[in-house]
Amino acid sequence: MDPRERRTERDAVGLAHGGELELPGGPDAALVLHGLTGSTVEVLPLVERLHGAGLRVLAPVMAGHGGAPADLRGVAWTAWVEKAQRDLERLAGARRVFVAGLSMGAMVACTLAAAHPDRVAGLVLLAPALELTWPGRLGARLGLLPIARELVVSKWYSDVRDPALPRRTFGLDGLPLGAVTELARLERHVDALLPRLRVPTLVVAAGRDRTVTVRGARRLARRLGAPPSLVVLPESAHLVLLDLERERCIEEAMGFVEGLRERGAGSPGAGSFTGSAGTVHRQ
User: Fold this and answer.
1) Local structure of residue 264 (DSSP, 8 states)
2) For the domain 3-282, what is the CATH code?
3) Closest Cα partner for 70 from 171, 175, 173?
4) What are the phi and psi torsion angles at 126 (to 5°)?
5) Which of 169, 188, 201 is nearest to 101 (CA)?
6) Of 82-96, 146-160, 261-275, where does mean pLDDT reach its minimum?
7) Phi and psi (nearest 5°) for 45?
8) What letter does residue 211 receive in the DSSP assignment?
9) CB neighbour list of residue 68: distance below 8 Å, 6 or more residues apart
10) For residues 42 and 48, is the Cβ–Cβ distance under 8 A?
């Protein structure tokens, strides 16, 4: 049997319940990070395609996730980053490592690329959470108040528009307001890092996102130290890998990764990716 077709019992649980996924392959590898309150279910389509292309893929559960919403109480944004750094270490020895992240996971991916530019061959940033929509911004402010910090709230809207998908969340069904405050702190940290990032980057934004803004994705693209490719999916909500334009989203991500693999970008000693004279924008 092809080793890429083998899954451990833990992987089977992950596929069913959003737990950690670790799929064999190589010599290249990918680290795929889910978003705040999410699970690996929301990144599973990309995990499967990357694995099918021969990559070793690790999709961990982010710090504070995998249990109840209350588990996020007191979890600082630095804990999300530190856990992801340990997960990146688990891929040591790969020829090159690509890091993909959704929403908060995209912000964490940026911190990894800033800290380890020699180890991250490319970034795939999906619906990056550089700027929250007004409910999130309000929640982040309320989370600063000691009386509200531990209050668990739920979204009143869905992160998908596809009527064939369940309207409930694909992870935790709520979060403490303090966790939204931590996400806002992570956003500010990443915003300051962006001019230092010269890693090849694909940014995918959702035109009908009610969680983060397209404006934030455009700002991220403008502030990166090297011009990225920016794709806006006009009919998609926040969970771009599951929603109406999921196939295009996956094809964009796979085309980006495979293009870098073919050019040998990101391998030790390889030159930096220059792309075009400015951001490549497709809609």
Assistant:
1) T
2) 3.40.50.1820
3) 175
4) -105, 120
5) 201
6) 261-275
7) -60, -40
8) S
9) 172
10) no
Q: How far apart are CA 172 and CA 17, in angstroms?
A: 11
Q: Where are the domains of the chain?
A: 3-282
User: What single-letter amino acid sits at 198?
Assistant: R
DSSP annotation of 174 = -
Q: Is the pLDDT of residue 266 over 60?
A: no
From the number of C-beta atoms within 10 Å of its C-beta (0-12, 13-18, 19+), residue 127 rates as buried
CB atoms within 10 A of CB 278: 10
pLDDT at 258: 95
Instruction: Specify the residue for token string 């403490």.
Output: 176
Q: Which amino acid is at 205?
A: A
35 within 8 A of 129, measured Cβ to Cβ = yes
Q: What is the pTM of this model?
A: 0.88
How many whole angstroms separate alpha carbon 151 and alpha carbon 115?
33
- Amino acid letter at 67? G
